[in-house]
Amino acid sequence: MTRNEIRKVGLHIGFTGIDGAGKSTQATLLCGWLTQRRIPNILREEKRDFVSEIATAIARNHGIGSGRKYLGEEYYMVALSFDLLREVLFDIKPFTAMGIIVVSTRTVFCRLAGGIARGCRSIELAKEIALFGGIPDLTIWLDVSPETACRRVMQRKFDYADLDHLKNYRKSLKELLQNYPHIRIDGEGTIESIQIKVRQVVEERLKQFTNY
After folding, report:
1. Rounded Cα gap, residues 212 and 208, in angstroms
2. What are residue 64's phi and psi, to 5 degrees?
3. Domains of the chain
4. Segments in the chain forming alpha helices (H)
5. Model confidence over 149-194: pLDDT tens digits?
6. What are the pLDDT digits (tens) for 81-105?
């Protein structure tokens, strides 16, 4: 690869973790740090997606409040996987191809772990579809205890947290990540101390690219 070709390489950095792990906070701070270093970057924080919105709208036509409940976990998860693939192919890779760092507040692993936690029987098919476009160049797992996560979520006051669900979710995420490259960061500290660790991990990765 020539020097000019290397300069065109971008990165996809994705955060994963259970609700309340601090993914959005750390991703936002990371983008601010990258901007200070004059490194082109984009923050992606998609809490809404096409499949869930349309599925919910259709479900409501039948007097059902949840698209997942209407379609069933198996069909819903497969449909969602195509949406996850679309995001990678059309919303992330075009920017990394231009040499931009894309920072996602959540990754495909977050959604897949949710399906595993709910006992989705089509999870293997869902994984094949969702991961067809590849995984983030750098996946950062912000790992916190379910108890800490539950407390943080409840402090938001506009969200609800189920401790048993968070325990099952963390277990599923941990098992899933064992099969894919990632960096685990203890998310139990202060926002500032965690951000220092995040920057160290990212900076080490950036050293591999001469354009940064």
Report:
1. 8
2. -115, 135
3. 3-205 (3.40.50.300)
4. 3-7, 23-36, 50-61, 67-71, 73-86, 93-96, 108-117, 123-130, 146-156, 163-177, 191-206
5. 999 998 887 677 899 999 999 999 999 999 999 999 999 999 999 9
6. 999 999 999 999 999 999 999 999 9
Burial 26-55 (b: 16+ CB within 10 A, else e): bbebbbebbeeeebebbbbeeeeeebbeeb
Q: Compute the distance between CA of residue 28 and CA of residue 104 in angstroms, rounded to an integer.
A: 9
Closest-CA residue to 105 (of 206, 189, 21): 21
pLDDT at residue 53 greater than cutoff 60: yes
User: Alpha-carbon distance 140 to 187, whole Å?
Assistant: 11
Q: What is the pTM of this model?
A: 0.91
pLDDT digits (tens, 9 = 90+) for 27-39: 999 999 999 999 9
Q: Band of the pLDDT at 119, cuts 50, 70, 90?
A: very high
Residues 42 and 75: their CA atoms lie apart, in Å, by 32
Residue 171 is encoded by which pair of tokens? 């277990």
Which one, of 156, 152, 177, lies nearest residue 166 by Cα? Answer: 152
Extract the tokens encoding 179: 């099969």
